[in-house]
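Question: what's this shape?

___
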Amino acid sequence: REDDKYSYFFAAAVAAAVAAAAAAPGFCPERCDCQQPHHLLCTNRGLRAVPKASVSVPEEVLIFNLGGNFINNISAFDFTRYSDLVRLNLQFNQIQNVHPKAFEKLTKLEELYLGHNLLSDVPAGTLQTLRKLTILYGNNNDIKKVTPELFTNLDNLVKLRLDGNSIEVLQDSVFKSLSSLHYLHLEFNKLLHIHRNAFSKLANLRFLNLAHNKQSALRSLLTFSQLKALTTLLLSENEIQSIGNNVFQSLKKLSKLSLSNNRISHLESGALTGLSSLRELLIDGNALEEIPAGLLDPLERIEELDFSRNQIANVHSAAFSKLKHLKVLKLKNNFLTSLSGDIFALNSVLYDLDLNGNNWTCDCRLEELKKWMTAAHSRGKLLTVFVQCHHPATLRGKYLDYVNSSQLQPHSNWTHLCRSQAQPEERVKKELGVQGDQGGEEVTEPSSSPERKKTKMSLSPRSRPGAEAAGKRVKGRQRWNVVFRTDAPAISTPGMGNTTDVNSEVTTAPPESDQRFDLLISDQKLGLPVITDPCVFNRHFITNVSVDHVTSSTVTVYWTVRDHHPFAPGSGPGLDEIHYRILFDRFGAADRFPRYVYAHGAARSVTLRELSSDLTYIVCIEGVVGGSVCQVAPRDHCAGLVTLPEVLTRGSTLTSDLQLVTVATLAGNAVLLLVIGGVWLGRFVRKRLQRRKSAVHVRHMYSTRRPFRPTMATTASVATDFTSYQSSRPARIAPLEEGDLIEFPCDRFLDSSSVRRDGEMQRFSD
């Protein structure tokens, strides 16, 4: 009975398996994969028509994928047995015709993909039964016209893709049935005209892409008037030449607007009105010639502006004054030659400024811009800005950061554009508040603070060409006679090797004229030198630059600073201490790109990050004194480093721990070896001393004045012990005398352990 029982169960299992195998071909279409219960996979099977199922498809089949075949026609009966489908994919076929009743039974369908086919028209009413449809892809076909009847009853549609077709016109209220639509793609069509009410009823639309079309102008105030929820509008790669006033006034929630690569040569003063929430405006690749005042004022929250690749030659000094949130501004590859010095004074959060690729004329008009850049760099609020001089020829190719103020000469007959160029001495005096002795010139480092402490100076150049020195700037560096006067106690400058006594004068060069340079900069309280020149600070006060903790992408830079007094004490906020900036660059690489990193406060170390592995870098430290930096590169305070390969830095924490364990083990072994060695050495020395004390040393037990003769009876006992030694000596016949022998007690040859040696014999053992 047991055997019959097991036989019954086995037969039942085999029958069930056979039945399942026989039933499988019944609902699975030919050439398709039905292993997954919810998914019929017929992708890339070489099908030329929708495969038929002999029986009704089970309700659990929700996805039907027919992509990548050669289907060219959809009939009315292809999907009658798939009434429970939720997703139907027909992409990448060769479909040219769709029967109006092809999807009539798919009342539960939510996603329909018809992209990348050869459709030129979809009959009206084809989609009207798809009330639950949320996603519809009709992209990359040859559709030339869409009508409102095509989208009837599609109230739940969220995403519609019609990009990559041949649509030329958007009719009035063409999308009126799509009240729930969020995303609309119409790029890469041939749109020439958009009816003013084409986007009506799209109150929930958030994303609209109209790029790569053929629109020539945006004039109608009603085109985007009903898109109250729109956040992204893309109009790039069209043929737009002009934009009218108040076109975007209804787009209160718009955060991104792209007008790139059009033909816009002029923007009306109210073209950007209403864009109070806009955060990103891309208008690069156009033909704009200027940025007038007030044009950008409506962009209250703008963070990124891109005016690259235009023809901009003039930017009004107040163009960006209302943009308090501006972070990124790109003006590269334009026709700019100069910018007002205070143009970015109110953009407090601006950190990325791209001015590269312009025809900059490095003259006095850029002096204020240079000061602003220097001050922003010193506070770590601005990335590196490349302003490469194009004119004059003497400065061509140089960057504004490394051009001295004395080299910014007025260009040809543009002297009137530079403030007070006719009287440079008065201009400097007015800006800096410096007073000088009679007959001397007043010169000092520029300062952005109007309350900077006045410094009394009188300068005299070594070679001064008479009256021409007052009206012309002398190229290069001039050497001056400098006299320091102080009424404070003696000041010792670390590293300088000099000491200033009370009422003493320290002259850097012998005076050649009656003029003097008085610099009252002593600090009576601290007795420390006051730093005003960044070049002097870099050379004499920054020391011990080193790198440590090198990995594949990070390194920590350390440096020390000798004692000094902060710059211009009490002169105002931000100027009462010295900051530091670190330049690091790839060394020896073709694609060099120098970067600046600014240390916070009085920090003496900075960690550089995002480095490339296995590359050589050079790191230099320099001081920022009162917002000014030295124009001479700080080569004396540079250090080289090579980042580690990524393989060596994996598990760096574990490696460091293993290193510590290894060092501790080696140290313990060394101590153990020393102890063992000490014990062994002590025993060895003790044994040697014992042997040394117990040893018997015989010295000169015979005389060498005459040969020893063993035939004498009186020396028989001695001769028997020295027979082997005396056998090599020649025998002589001379008679033995009493002085031939050394006298010593006979008990010398007795057992030393039982005989006490007296003081006379002790000297032999020693």
